[in-house]
Amino acid sequence: MANALITGGAGFIGSHLVERLIKEGWTVGVLDNLSTGSWDNLDLAQGPSLIAKTWDVSVPWPTEKFDIKWDVVVHLASPASPIHYQRLSLETLRVNSRGTENAIEAALRDGARFVYGSTSETYGDPEVSPQPETYWGRVNPVGPRACYDESKRYGEALTMEYWRRTAIDARIIRFFNCYGPRMQLDDGRVVPNFIRQALLGEPLTVYGDGSQTRSFCYVSDTVEAIYRMMTGSKLAGHVINIGNPWEMTIREFAQAVSAAIEVPLQIEYRPLPQDDPTQRRPDIQKAEQLLGWRPVVDLPEGLIKTIRYFRSRVR
Ligand SMILES: NC(=O)c1ccc[n+]([C@@H]2O[C@H](COP(=O)([O-])OP(=O)(O)OC[C@H]3O[C@@H](n4cnc5c(N)ncnc54)[C@H](O)[C@@H]3O)[C@@H](O)[C@H]2O)c1
After folding, report:
1. What is the pTM of this model?
2. Residue whose CA is at the smallest distance from ligand 1 atom 25
3. Can you say whether residue 200 is alpha, beta or left, with left for phi > 0 and alpha for psi between -120 and 50 degrees?
4. Of 196, 190, 191, 100, residue with least CA distance to 151
5. Of residues 116, 148, 179, 227, which has the active-site annotation?
6. CA 262 to centroid of ligand 1, rounded, Å
7. Domains of the chain with CATH codes
8. How far is the CA of 78 from the centre of ligand 1 (A)?
9. Active site residue 227
10. How many CB atoms lie within 10 A of CB 209?
11. In what order do the strands lie in the sheet with 113-119?
């Protein structure tokens, strides 16, 4: 039991993490500006151990208002889906640069551990598969995804430099695609897109020819990994991939969603967006060795839980 401050805690991954921490007896602070999240996501976590504040973490923080000393700060605040981070491009650049610095400074003030939520998009459109943490990536620094990819890369550089130059215990997680309940129906990511379209009996939109690959990690597995990253010892200065190494093509994923919802597979092909990565698969050997972690929820099980959540929301 300890005190954790989670930025972006009203979002998809953040809300599941907050719920888990509260269940384990932690006191949890959340700072979120609700740009892509909602306090409704924290309905199940309400109680005296949750202190939630609406705040843009890219501007200096109201830390004094919490009146609590944090043991861990987890920085998850950032738009995560291409639709949102391109709509909020400048805000995305700020939250991963200034926002990350504010989060690190808050951790430093309290002598807290710092965990930065980065992304597999730091690898860009990779030339190697699976991607190990040692791969430097192939990113277009001026393309339409750069506001996200490059700001996350800057956030990582900042985290590592603070770790090198101060006493802070800082760690970086690179999340690969994570899915589950509380994703937004209309955030344009492939999981909610396909589920919404299949539930409405519409064709599933596939960009390109559908041969590009992705790997999908169920949110409870992701949260378990964050928990171990927050609480494990001797992880300072480490960057660790968190994702499911089970890689599939987007066409295969469309088949899996149609089968789970029991509708015939219909696909509508559209042009591939610029800089869309052709392959994404994490090398998770480091997570296995240092965190003793690997995903345990398989795709059919995760899809059933996710579809159950979306069914009541699709009209
Ligand atoms: N979900 C994934 O598959 C995935 C993959 C790679 C990386 N990530 C990273 O994990 C983190 C969480 O992603 P998610 O899928 O839960 O996204 P999300 O959009 O559901 O959650 C992000 C949260 O951050 C909040 N936020 C954004 N800007 C803010 C700001 N300036 N100040 C305060 N709050 C702010 C949003 O309101 C939202 O609640 C992000 O940093 C994202 O880049 C997620």
Report:
1. 0.96
2. 8
3. alpha
4. 100
5. 148
6. 31
7. 3-179+218-245+281-296 (3.40.50.720), 190-212+247-279+302-311 (3.90.25.10)
8. 4
9. no
10. 11
11. 50-54, 27-32, 3-7, 72-75, 113-119, 170-175, 239-242
| DSSP helix/strand/coil, 27 | strand
Residue corresponding to tokens 């919404």: 196
For residue 223, give both structure tokens.
């949260």
- Per-position pLDDT tens, the chain of length 315: 699 999 999 999 999 999 999 999 999 999 999 999 999 999 988 899 999 999 999 998 876 668 899 999 999 999 999 999 999 999 999 999 999 999 999 999 999 999 999 999 999 999 999 999 999 999 999 999 999 999 999 999 999 999 999 989 999 999 999 999 999 988 889 999 999 999 999 999 999 999 999 999 999 999 999 999 999 999 999 999 999 999 999 999 999 999 999 999 999 999 988 878 888 899 999 999 999 999 999 999 999 999 999 998 887
Nearest ligand 1 atom, CA 37: 39
Beta strands in 76-218 (DSSP E): 113-119, 170-175, 178-179, 204-207, 213-215, 217-218
Q: Which atom of ligand 1 has the smallest separation from the CA of 99?
A: 31
Q: Which atom of ligand 1 is nearest to the CA of 9?
A: 39
β-pairing, 247-249 with 213-215?
antiparallel
